[in-house]
Structure formats: C-alpha cells, structure tokens
Amino acid sequence: MFSRAYRAVITLPPLLWVAAFLLIPYALLFCYSFWSVSPDQVIVHSWSLDNYRELFRVDVYLQTLFRSMWIAARVTIFALLLGYPLAYFLSFHAGKRKDLLYQLVIIPLWVSYLVRAYAWKTILGSDGVLNTLLQYVHLTKHPLEFLLYSPFAVVLTLTHIYTPFTFLPIYASLEHIPRNLVEASHDLGASPFQTFWRVIFPLSIPGVLAGATFAFVLSLGDFLAPLLLGGPSGIMISNIVVSLFGAAYNWPLGAAISLCMLVLVIALLFLSENLEKKWSFR
Amino acid sequence: MSAGKRTARESRWLPWHAIAVFGFLYLPIVTLIVYSFNGQGVGGFPPRNLTLDWYRMLFADDAIWTSVLNSLLVALVAVGIALAFGIPAALALDRANFPGKAVFRRLVLLPLILPGIITGLSLLMLFRQTDVKLSLVTIVLGHGTALISVATTEVFAGLQKLDRAQEEASLDLGANYWHTFWRVTIPNLRLSIIGAALLIFTLSMDEIAVSFFLIGRDNTLPLEIWGRLRRGITPEINAISSIIFIFSLIAIVTWYRLRVGAEGQPQITGELLET
C-alpha cells in the first residue's frame, strides 16, 4: 500500500544520518586503532598492528580488562539475585499493587546516573552517612575505610544502577508466561518448587539472558563510578582508555582497547541473542 | 483450587525480599534528599540543624544556572533531532524493505546497549577528523544521534498497535501521502511521540558518558556537577541533585501514564529487540 517514493522518504534521511554519525564514527574507531602517534604528538596515518601488540605485551591492560570483567560479573550476579525474585513477586504475587510497584522499579532506572553514584559516595565515605551511623550506634569505633575507594564501592553502586535494567526483561518474560501452564502444572500435582524450576524458570530464561547481558555489558564499560568511588584498586578498563585520550595522549592505543571492548560486547550480544532464541518457546 | 495455600508458603519470603530491594533502590535517593537540608554538611549521623541554606546557596550560584540553561537547550534540540530521524526510522523498519535493514536496525539501537564511552569516543574522532570544534553543538549531535534509538523503539511500539486501515482509507479517499502522514499517522502515534520526547529530554538532561568526551568550553549540568565533585563535595550538590530527582520523577511518571494509556505496561526496548 505504500509507494516507492513514500518508502524512500521515510528510509533515506535516517539511513544517511545514522551512517554519518554512527557508522562512520565506529569505522573511524577501527581505523584509529591501527594508526600511531609520533613523539611530537601528531597522529600518523600509517597502518600497523603495533597497538594490539602493545596490548598483549604490557600486563596492565589485560589485567585491568580481566578485573573489569570480574567486577561486571559480580554486578551481573547481584543484579540477577535482586532482580529475579522481585520480578517474580511482582508478576505472580503483587495483585493490585503490581502497577504501582512496577513504577517504583522504573523510576530509579531513569533517575540520573550521576545523582545515584554521588549519593553512594556521600553514604560510603569515611565521614559518610554509613560510617557515622555505625559509630553512632557503637557498632564500630573507627570509620571502615574499605567502604569507599574500593572495588566494593564500584560493585555496590553499579549493582544499584543496573538492577532495574536486569529486572525489566525478566519481568517481561514472566508476564508472557501463559497462566494456564502454571495452573496445569499445579493441577497435575507438581509442587510449587517443581512448578517453578520446571515450568516458570525455563520460560523466563530469555529474559534472564537479556537482563544479564545488559548488566554485564554496561558495567564493563563504565568509567564514571570507578573514577568517583573506585580509588586506585577500583580502576577499570575504560579508565585506562579515558587517560589515553586525555593526559597520556595516545588515541590510537585507546582506540585499540575500545575496539577490543566493542568486539567483546558485540560477541556477547550476539551470543545472548542466539541463546535467547534457542530458549524461546515461540 | 489449592494454589492459594502454595503461594502463601512461597510468598512468605518474597515480600521481604521485595521490601529489601526497594530499600536498596531508594535508600541513596532518600539519603541524598535528607542531607540536602542538613546544616552539618554531607555526612554525619544523625542529620541535625535542618536548614534551607544549601538551596539558598544553590539559587545564588550562577555557574550552575548557566549549565542548567545549556542542558535545557541541548535537551530540546536533541529531542528535535532524535524525533526527526527516529520517527521515519521506526516507519521504515515497520513498512519498508531495503538492503541492510537488519544492520540498520541494530546500528540504530547500538547506543542504547553500548557503554557510552564507545559512542562518545567514536564521535570525538569524527569531529577531530573533520576539524569540528567541540562545543554544545557537538554534544547536541551526540545526544540527538544516540537517542534516536529511544525515539525509534517508542514509535515502533506505537506502530504495532496502529490500525493501517485508517491510513489506507485516507489514501483511498484521495489524500496524498503527505496529508495522510500529518492527519492520520502522526495523530495516531501522538502518545508514543510525546512519551518518547519526555524520555529523550530526561535522558539528555542527565547524560554524562557521551558528553564527557564532546564537551567544549560550556558545561552541561551533569558535567558542571562532575567538575565540582572532583574538587570535593558540598550539600549544594545534594540540593541540585534533589531538584533533578523531582523533575525526573515527574517526567517518568508522566511518560509511564502515557504509555499505559497507549498500550498497557511498557517494556523498554522490548518490542524492537524481539522482532
């Protein structure tokens, strides 16, 4: 029913814009990662694999990448442990309050990242709310120093930020489960435990995968929470990239690290999408 | 049915878990707001000497208000760009076939799923290669482009509920595509578009990861706050953060109402990722 002209008019402008401001920039990231910087800080447009060799030669890059993945993995696990039962509760047991509770979950999702990270900083600091509270009720005599400027602070903050992200797809997949399947399972004599593990959980796996991917990918690339709350031991891979683009002035090496991150992220998205399809009953 | 008894048993710990998670989600926000009234500064328990001084200080702080104006300007233009390209993009994904459609769909959504640093840096390199000076304009281009994803998902969701017979009738009755678009398609997508605009506005006002790399001389509000955090913290930041929270809250709840009105409980990004 739509003419060729109509389809061209709706297709071309977004296609061109996205090509100019997303495709070309991502392609430039690729190009930069093969270039280099001369000693007088000029980008040299000659192609080599030197940046990638550097990545594998100097320990700190791989070490930091693995540390970031470990932080992201912990965030993912905690976000699932907090998000899944909450989604299950809302979907199956919340009754009339479902709508209100759902809104209560998505509000923090859209509330400023910076505001929430800053709030944790004021809570965890050595003169912060938590430490002064603990001393006020005489649980501790001195401020606990490990609370702020540590991987702990980064994991806690990122878990806070990405739990609603993880909740959403899980909740959506639970909502899609036909309720008569659950009733059939009960009626055929399965215990609630069996019903959950053999009917509900398998059907919610696509949501779990999507939620876990969100949490892992977004926390892996985070650089603001580590800068604000991580201290020296909480440095993540993106912080190295930021410094390479800033004071250290080695854009090509920074681009190479970013490209590795991009490839890792796209591989994960691809993997999770295929697993989701495999587990999807439609 | 005995389901009641069964659910009674398993739901014994679930409500407590839910309360704990909500506590975890809201504790920082509540703390933030309470301490914005605390005369003793950001830390210290219990809060004492409640005061409005920090808000008074905030309202006299010109640098903050300049950055608020910058952010408002950026967000408004970003909404314009994201809608101008996001609405046709959603239409194209819904009703046109073209080579590279699958790639295009993924590319549009990528900034939503990718860590902001990658999009920010890629754009920084583009502006560097084309000798564009960093300024609010580059931030607007960054926000507008990254948030096309939000406009596309929201409008695409709306299109799934749209009855094409109306458009067909309009075309049969002699209206051209242009008139049909403005008189039938857009009014039917009204709620999705307003919802998308609200969401894009809020996200742009709060955005920091992409802006971080594209900032010129003029700060946006989040970057102004960021700069101050690096110098040390004062309850003035609690005060501005509390105000940001209240505004985000209003925008999100309004958006939610619009989406529920349009099509029941919204699933952020869900529809487009699933197709």
CATH superfamily of chain A: MetI-like
Oligomer: heterodimer
Order of helices and strands of chain A: HEEHHHHHHHHHHH
Name the helicity range of chain B: over 70%
CATH architecture of chain A: Orthogonal Bundle
Unreliable runs of chain B, pLDDT <50, ≥5 residues? 1-5, 270-275
Task: Give the CA-based shape of chain B.
Answer: globular
* Percent in strands of chain B: under 5%
Find the structural class of chain A using helix and strand composition.
Answer: mainly alpha
Please name the two chains that share the biggest interface, counting residues whose Cβ lies under 8 Å from a Cβ on the partner chain. A-B, 99 and 96 residues
Largest sheet descriptor of chain B:
none
Strand element count of chain A: 2
Kindly report the average pLDDT value of chain B.
87
CATH superfamily of chain B: MetI-like
Mean pLDDT reading of chain A: 90
> Given the C-alpha coordinates, what overall shape of chain A results?
globular
Structural overview:
The complex is a heterodimer of chains A (282) and B (275). In chain A, 76% of the residues lie in helices and 1% in strands. Chain A has helices spanning 4-32, 50-57, 59-93, 98-110, 113-124, 129-136, 151-175, 179-187, 192-220, 224-230, 237-245, 251-279, and strands spanning 36-37, 43-44. In chain A, strand 1 (36-37) and strand 2 form a beta hairpin. Chain A has a two-stranded antiparallel ribbon with strand order 1-2. The longest helix of chain A is centred in the first third of the chain and has 35 residues, at 59-93. With 282 residues, chain A is an all-alpha fold. Chain A has 12 helices and 2 strands. Chain A has one domain (58-279): MetI-like fold. Chain B is mainly alpha-helical and 275 residues long. Chain B has a single domain, classed as Orthogonal Bundle (MetI-like fold). Chain B is 76% helix and 0% strand. Chain B has helices spanning 3-10, 14-35, 53-59, 62-95, 101-113, 116-129, 136-160, 164-172, 177-188, 190-206, 211-214, 221-231, 235-263, 270-274. In chain B, helix 10 packs antiparallel against helix 13. Chain B is globular, with a radius of gyration of 23 Å. The relative contact order of chain B is 0.14. The chains are: A mainly alpha (282), B mainly alpha (275). At the A-B interface, helix 1, helix 3, helix 4, helix 5 and helix 6 of A face helix 1, helix 2, helix 4, helix 5 and helix 6 of B.
